[in-house]
Amino acid sequence: MSTLLAANSRQPGEADFLPLQGTDYVEFYVGNAKQAAHYYKSAFGFQSLAYAGPETGIKDRVSYAVRQNKLTFVFTTALRTGHPIADHVYLHGDGVKVLALRVDDAKSAWKETTMRGGKSYMEPACFTDRYGEVVLSGIYTYGETVHLFVERNNYSGPFMPGYRETKTAYNPPSTGLQYVDHAVGNVGWNQMDPWVNFYEEVMGFSNILSFDDNDISTEYSALMSKVMSNGNGYVKFPINEPAEGKKKSQVEEYLEFYNGEGVQHIALATNDILQTVTQLRDRGVEFLQVPSSYYQDLRSRIGTIDEDIRPLADLGILVDRDEEGYLLQIFSKPVEDRPTLFFEIIQRKGAKSFGKGNFKALFEAIEREQSARGNL
């Protein structure tokens, strides 16, 4: 059964050796960065921010950075075959490569994590241009996913050195997305606890919430999950692994089509989920739908909420409550042809949990999609 744990395992007065300010950006390795950036502008409401490529002195790849409020996405494509980025896309399809975390001291972040057993991805390096300097370092996490530590206190440019600001005639309005609430990773059989230990020992995170296969199961499939959080709660990484079931779980489907462990979905926060989801749907983003029966006794299950039930039901938005308040959430269908990466849209009204009460309805909706694909 689910277990709510202490928010931080450090002893009182013990220093946080990896203080994080939040998510700096998310980088996707993709087959066509120009088209991916255009999709996220059109469908999700991002704006063009910066570009890196041959014109800026980077000869082997191109990157487009887009931004919406505190959300920054970067889409990167290799320009030739035989490049590690091209190999990554061939193996995994389009997906998340980098979960970049903002820090005050990238050198210290790299030193503290590698001395605790983290595998180095990038030793600390300083990059400069006329706007100042950015220091980067990084370590590997599950699969080929990377955490970059980004120190940009002395930088005033649009994104970072190596990029130039981009302004375009096409600038669709924002959909109200604000920041990364959490990012969920899928790992292989019996790998959840080793990665929980990684985040505890290497990065100083704490396991704040655990769900077993009794919490996250349907008639056909199940999975287990543990939520890892840094000390101030700005960065949260739930980790999923498969559990035994009659048929293939969503995690097993992901691992099969992604060809390994990686980021399953990114939860994007909004201050008005009704408006955000309406705009996303109108722009072509497809969402999972739950049966109308989910809403029949919603108020008796959830209690008083500010929203009317009908617009929630019309959009398929789920509601759950914990001791701190309630949350509203909805999950997109996969945004690519491989059934791998998708997005969660979430609005928190006090709640700090992750929607346990919606697990059954959500996972049955996912199973219907799996069945339609012939993957259940």
- Rg over alpha carbons: 20 Å
Major beta sheet summary: 9 strands, mixed
Structural class: alpha+beta
CATH structural fold name of the largest domain: 2,3-Dihydroxybiphenyl 1,2-Dioxygenase, domain 1
- Give the name of the CATH superfamily of the largest domain: 2,3-Dihydroxybiphenyl 1,2-Dioxygenase, domain 1
Biggest sheet strand line-up:
1-12-13-14-11-15-18-17-16
Total strands: 18
Rough outline? globular
Mean pLDDT, to the nearest integer, reads 90
Q: State the separation between the terminal residues, measured CA to CA.
A: 24 Å
Q: What is the top-level CATH class of the largest domain?
A: Alpha Beta
> What's the total helix number?
9
Any guess at the CATH architecture of the largest domain? Answer: Roll
Give the SSE string: EEHEEEHEHEEEEEHEEEHEHHHEEEH
The share of residues in extended strands comes to: 25-35%
- Low confidence ranges: 1-13
The helix content is 10-25%
Number of domains: 2
